[in-house]
Amino acid sequence: MSGAQPEKSRGRQGKAVCALLLATSMLALLRPIALHAQETELRGEVSESAILSDQQRKARQLAVAAQGQQASGNTAQDDTPSRTYLPASAGAVPDDTGVDAATGSVFDPPQATDDTSTDNPTPPKPRRRPSNAKQNATDQDKAKAGAKTADKSKKKKKTTAATTGTTASTTASTTDAAGTTDTDEETANRRALTVDSADRQKLDPGAERTAAIEGQNKKAEEDPFAPTGVKWGSFVIRPSIEQGLTATTNADSSSAGTSALLSETALRFTAVSDWRENSATIDGYGLFRETVSGYPVHNAQGRIEGQLNVDLDNELRAIAKLGYEAVPESASSPDAIAGVSTQPLRQTIDGSLGVEKHVGKMQYTLTGAVSHDFYGDAKLSDGTTLSQKDQDNTLYTATLRTGYEISPALTPFTEIEVGRRAYDQRIDNEGFERSSTRLGARAGLQLDMGEKLSGEFSAGWLREAIDDKSLEAISGATVNADLKWSPERGTTIGLTGKTTVETTTTSGESGDILYSGRLTGERQIRANLTANAALGLDWRHYVGIDGHDQILSVETGLTWWLNRYAGLTTRVRTEKLTSNLPGRDYTANSIYLGLKVQR
């Protein structure tokens, strides 16, 4: 009996140990175990400086945790709850609050933002579903925490003062480390720019839409058939050529002229500068007439002139002009030579320079001009030539003009002119000294009412005394005008008048005064159809003899533009000269049809 009892008690003890181990195992299984998960996300390239900063940050966190444990051990009681488990890898355990606090690590997931304007919103962090065991353990911890709240509040009051200094220093160092880490991460993980990022610009919602270069509401041109011109350097040149046939009853407009069919070619051009301040213009024409059938005519004439306007300082303005003209002597001229096959060619070179000055409403203009005429030889019917060198002369004049501006539209003025005409041959072939002294005065009105009415007119007296006392001085009233009036759009009426002193080398004669007047009208019937008309009246008074000439002319024409560059033109003209001197009367009627091309 006694030998069997010890074995029986060992068996009972073994069963008890087994039961204790089983119960312990069951308690271990039922005890809540914190679930830990480590989440990592790939965020791009990580630099070595970022990894080093992360390791240093973790080391500082462990040092701060150790200091906290030591301070808690000195002041905590037995019922102090155990410290929450901190995993080595941040973010391994999700926070109970449901918000993942950023630790400053390069492995932290991107933070969510409330900015709705971002292109790629941060997706929500995936979370694991808690198990039943963890949920039960959480409920038990909450119940215990409610019972110990009062004791914790008392202990916290004591420990707060002790840990304030440590926490402040730790926070400062952590903030510096976090700032450095964020800067490194920002540099390392910066998004690469696109190829066209520099050219792409954000649209401005307040910017106005740019209109098309040529919209549908294009303003109509005032004259769609006007020449466009050709750009040449700083000038715009508008050339034109006109070719046609003229049928006339008097080919050379003389008392002996007969009918003929003539070919006429006219070349014209205008050049206008495109300068910012000063301006310049150049005008020229050339007219060539050849007989196709009938009375022989070979005529060529032309002129070119230019004007330069320069603005100077102190309200001064300079105006310079220069011109050249070549015209054969007309058969109806008082100096025409009878019985010749070709009249002499008269060439003229003229130029002037004027200076304008405005002082308040007063206007002063001083102009100096020079004009030189030289004549070619006349070809006689027998083939010989007759020199006309004794007619060559030069006229020098100086004119002072003073005006007062009553209003911008009206400026009355007065002019005083002095001059000297000098012949290259002091005594002509007939033995007369033809040089003379010139003196004149005029008064007039200048108008400037825009496109409605513009121009000027004047009247006065002119006297040219010849050096030879046996010849009477040429003197008489003068009338000059240059006006343009537009009563309505598309209609232009012009009036021009001029007084000219004509010299002569005829024996015993001083010369004559020629008064020329011309009234013109132009009407644009349609955009491509223009009508024009002209009425001319000339009166020539001979000095030294009782003689006079009257020339009356009427002309009308049409121009029909086929397009902007070509058009058909026609005109009808009649001219009649009536004189009290024998052998000068004539009548000439003509009709012209041609083609005009312009650019």
Write down how many β-strands occur, each being a DSSP E stretch of 2 or more residues.
22
Low-confidence stretches: 1-7, 32-43, 76-80, 96-102, 112-134, 143-150, 152-181
- Class derived from helix and strand content: alpha+beta
- Oligomeric state as shown: single chain
Kindly estimate the percentage of residues that lie in beta strands according to DSSP.
Answer: 35-45%
In whole angstroms, the N-to-C terminal distance is 149 Å
Biggest sheet overview: 18 strands, antiparallel, barrel
What is the helix/strand order? Answer: HHHHEEEEEEEEEEEEEEEEEEEEEE
Identify the overall geometry: elongated
What is the helical fraction, as a range of percent? 10-25%
Mean pLDDT: 79
Which secondary structure elements does this structure contain, and how are they paired or packed?
Elements: H1 4-30, H2 48-75, H3 132-147, H4 149-188, E1 230-232, E2 235-248, E3 260-273, E4 279-294, E5 298-311, E6 316-328, E7 340-342, E8 345-359, E9 362-375, E10 378-380, E11 385-386, E12 393-404, E13 410-423, E14 436-448, E15 453-466, E16 474-485, E17 491-503, E18 511-526, E19 529-543, E20 548-561, E21 566-579, E22 586-598
Antiparallel strand pairs: 1-2, 2-3, 2-22, 3-4, 4-5, 5-6, 6-8, 7-10, 8-9, 9-12, 10-11, 12-13, 13-14, 14-15, 15-16, 16-17, 17-18, 18-19, 19-20, 20-21, 21-22
What does the model show?
The protein is of the alpha+beta class and 599 residues long. The protein is 19% helix and 44% strand. It has four helices and 22 strands. It has an 18-stranded antiparallel barrel. Strands 7-10-11 form a three-stranded antiparallel sheet, with no helix packed on it. The radius of gyration is 57 Å and the shape is elongated.
